[in-house]
Specification:
The protein is of the alpha/beta class and 288 residues long. Helix content is 39%, strand content 17%.
Length: 288
Amino acid sequence: MKTEVLITGSNGQLGKTVFALHQGNNYKALNFTFTTKATLDISNQEQVDRYFKSNNFNYCINCAAYTAVDRAEEEKEEAFLINAIGARNLAEACKKYGVILIHISTDFVFDGSKKEPYSETDIPNPINVYGASKLQGERNIQSILENYFIIRTSWLYSEFGNNFVKTMLRLGAEKEELHVVNDQIGSPTYAQDLVEVVLEIIISGNKKFGLYHFSNKGAISWFEFAQAIFKLGQISIKLNSIQTKNYPTPARRPKNSVLESLKIETAFKITTADWKNGLHQVIAKYYE
């Protein structure tokens, strides 16, 4: 019998990554149900309950999220509706119908003041609305469920959706000069690597529930990330490094977003790839 897996937010970067892997027939033991906001609005409690009641899921991977960091400062209610109330609705349905929830969260729950990588025991202190809404989502899940996986990740990129890599490739073709901040540090994470970890957790049947961090190996600045993208993409552009104070945005960003992945590596016996590995694949697919 196949394991039934619900994917919420399948129009987003993560959801599309799951769909692509599923199409490759790599996970034949899993039967996926892909939903978008049109078919399952996680902010609607009654709709979520009805959907879970009329299906028989074993796992729910919550890929639905409000991720427009700057816009969230103006659209606080919308961000909390999806990231916090939506997470709560899924947690309540998972509890009621015996489904295991795997929820994707973010490095932005931290303020970035720590010098070392953040571990799961560090105290969150978000400095923007997006981070606050995601943290509330985590807390809602933890207050309702005992058996859950919350996985925080950072600087997610892929060949799908909107992300830094695709933005740089587009701007590199349009502009002769670009300014990128050099004092925000993080670990770029290839969405496929994250999804493979999540699906491995399901297939393994390992029930080491809890809060985990996962990102690719290595810590760099956005400026260094842009350098690597332009080098691999063979794009000739004048790239200038600037400080965050010279590039004001509506939402504040953590100076340090690096996550420590040791806990998840140990619990599920996984090896984390370097951040450069996925970048080769994304750039190759971008120019196909």
